[in-house]
Sequence to fold (301 residues):
Amino acid sequence: MLFIILLLLDITPMLPVLDGVVMELQDCALPLLRDIIPTDKEEVAFKDLDAAILVGSMPRKDGMERKDLLKANVAIFKSQGAALEKYAKKTVKVLVVGNPANTNCLIAAKSAPSIPKENFSCLTRLDHNRARSQVAMRCAVPATHVRNVIIWGNHSSTQYPDVHHCLVNMSGSELACFDAVKDDAWLKGDFIATVQQRGAAVIKARKLSSAMSAAKAICDHMRDIWTGTADGEFISMGVYSSGNSYGVPDDLIYSFPVQIKDKTWKIVEGLAINSFSQTKMDATAAELIEERDTAVAFLGV
Ligand code: LMR
Fold:
């Protein structure tokens, strides 16, 4: 029987705020939630974990260089990786949400050498859901009628939302996305830009980062790890690249199309990639290599 005990870790000054979160969680009357333990102690929060969702990271502040941001986050994710190594189960599934999510995830994985790298993933399900929803709105169908969009690469503005393998259910029959939308210029232009820039657009409008949609994407991601993906459906998540898929270099956390069974993800292989897609997949890989190399240089510091 599946049930959930939530261990909520925050820094000591935030513990009174965390009490408010605990009350809200209790007030949701969630069917699987059995207990909630707020704490400021890593040894409590990470002890025997089955699943870890790492949401806290240093947000970019005014005047901060990308390099400074990476340096601050390397320190955070090195320490969280070390805590996972020390206290969590070796089977723990780790989802990194805090930005830059892919590189933070790689640093956490490198800092927990006895936990398999395959147990680490970063959130690109939010981008996946955004892409699905944009296509659905364009075709005037529910989002559930759109499957197999792909987010390739980094959870950043270089990500590549790809609909070449996406199917849309229009009045009972499934069409290729390009045939359903009937607007190639939009799919190759504004659609991609909208998904790539959506996080920034939400911040501009709300003066705060995405919250509800990010939480929904985290639930989607974790539920799929635990229960598997539906037959014929793939989802996007940032996973460890071993250099064997789609020409993506190894030692990166790169978002791929994956299918999940028995809590194990597999990259969907053999999808045809045209030159339009390849260029975009390479560009986002190049950004990840640069981020990784900067971050890894800070690891020993
Ligand atoms: C998002 O995609 O909404 C967030 O990752 C944006 C951000 O920088 O917090």
Remarks:
- The CA atoms of residues 174 and 281 lie 26 Å apart.
- The radius of gyration is 19 Å.
- The pocket of (2S)-2-hydroxybutanedioic acid is lined by residues 99, 126, 199, 202, 209-210, 214 (CB under 6 Å).
- The mean pLDDT is 95.
